[in-house]
């Protein structure tokens, strides 16, 4: 069992319409803990220290303008990490371009709005890493597009060919999208959107996840297509995309008890990947799926 937090700045239970604005918490294990709550709003909320900003189970919430500052060595630490209620939210650093799963948002919120939230990058220590709420939305849109095209096990297996080719460094992002278009035009259309092209490293991450799943997962007759998105989330939640000064990226597997470290790696540069399937980081254990939330009386 995880150790109970020693200090919680704000502990909210069975409440509606709670708003925090221009509030800063320092040194707490958890900034805000909420249970059985509806319409929680956080505006310009500050959190400083090496704990976790949010542990929230609510029917609806908005988190905007958050500023989280933590020690760089602690920002990437997963000591005492409790499995999130849902997939970790990704963040991207504008300084070193790294993409990493945030440790500050342990949330189970069916209706959840996040915007303009910053935190410390565990790779370079820059304090303006942006919560990249659109990155994991890409997975959801992609899977929905596959379903719109009548996703089948045969289709998932077919997607493995271009994504494995991408992993071997034989094709670029744009060439891989072109190959996917032959299998699922709707999915290729999602990947070709202007806002998706801007975050090219995340598209490369999606292709890496797809290729990896095709290698290690058995898409057999008992497989449920609805599981595909969950598997992609799980794989993407287990890695950090680390940028550097040369404009290249490396995928690094998260060590559950230490700062994300070099292990198996994939090197991404200019839409190309170097590395082989033998060096791919394997997915970590899946976060427990969110429980079905009961309506509030």
Task: Outline the structure in words.
The protein is an alpha/beta fold and 297 residues long. The protein has helices at residues 72-75, 133-148, 153-167, 173-183, 185-191, 194-198, 200-216, 228-236; strands at 8-21, 24-26, 30-43, 46-48, 52-58, 60-64, 67-69, 90-92, 99-101, 105-108, 111-115, 118-119, 129-131, 239-243, 249-253, 265-269, 272-274. The protein folds into two domains: 8-131; 135-279, no CATH class. The strands form four sheets. Strands 1, 3, 5, 6, 10 and 11 form a six-stranded parallel β-sheet that branches. A hairpin with a 2-residue loop joins strand 16 and strand 17. The radius of gyration is 19 Å and the shape is elongated. 39% of the residues are buried. Residues 284-297 have a biased composition (Pro residues). Residues 268-297 are annotated as: Disordered. InterPro entries: Pectin_lyase_fold/virulence.
**Radius of gyration, in angstroms, nearest whole number:** 19 Å
Write down how many β-strands occur, each being a DSSP E stretch of 2 or more residues: 17
Q: What's the overall geometry? A: elongated
Low-confidence stretches: 75-83, 255-297
Largest sheet: 6 strands, parallel
Helix-strand sequence: EEEEEEEHEEEEEEHHHHHHHEEEE
Counting structural domains, the number is 2
Give the termini separation: 31 Å
Q: Helical segment tally?
A: 8
Structural class of the helix and strand makeup? alpha/beta
Strand fraction band?
25-35%
Helix percent band: 25-40%
Q: Roughly what is the average pLDDT, rounded to an integer?
A: 73
């Amino acid at each position: 069992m995880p150790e109970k937090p020693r200090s919680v700045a704000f502990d909210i239970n069975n409440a509606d319409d709670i708003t925090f604005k221009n509030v800063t918490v320092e040194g707490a294990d958890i900034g805000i803990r909420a249970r059985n709550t509806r319409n929680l709003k956080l505006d310009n909320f500050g959190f400083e220290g090496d704990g976790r900003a949010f542990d929230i189970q609510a029917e609806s919430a908005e988190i905007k303008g958050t500023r989280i500052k933590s020690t760089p060595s602690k920002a990437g630490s997963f000591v005492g990490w409790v499995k999130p209620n849902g997939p970790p939210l990704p963040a991207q650093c504008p300084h070193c371009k790294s993409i990493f799963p945030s440790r500050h948002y342990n949330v189970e919120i069916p209706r959840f709005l996040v915007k303009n939230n910053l935190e410390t990058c565990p790779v370079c220590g820059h304090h303006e890493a942006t919560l990249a709420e659109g990155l994991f939305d890409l997975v959801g849109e992609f899977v929905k597009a596959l379903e719109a095209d009548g996703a089948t096990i045969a289709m998932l297996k077919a997607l493995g060919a271009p994504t494995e080719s991408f992993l071997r460094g034989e094709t670029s992002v744009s060439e891989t999208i072109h190959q996917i278009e032959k299998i699922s035009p709707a999915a290729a259309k999602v990947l070709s959107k202007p806002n998706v092209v801007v975050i090219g490293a995340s598209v490369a991450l999606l292709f890496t996840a797809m290729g990896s799943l095709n290698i290690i997962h058995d898409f057999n007759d008992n497989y449920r297509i609805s599981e595909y998105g969950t598997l992609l989330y799980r794989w993407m939640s287990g890695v950090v995309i680390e940028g550097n000064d040369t404009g290249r990226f490396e995928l690094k597997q998260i060590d559950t008890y230490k700062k994300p470290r070099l292990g198996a790696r994939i090197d991404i540069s200019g839409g190309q990947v170097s590395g082989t399937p033998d060096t791919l980081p394997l997915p970590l254990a899946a976060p427990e799926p969110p429980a079905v939330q009961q309506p509030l009386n």
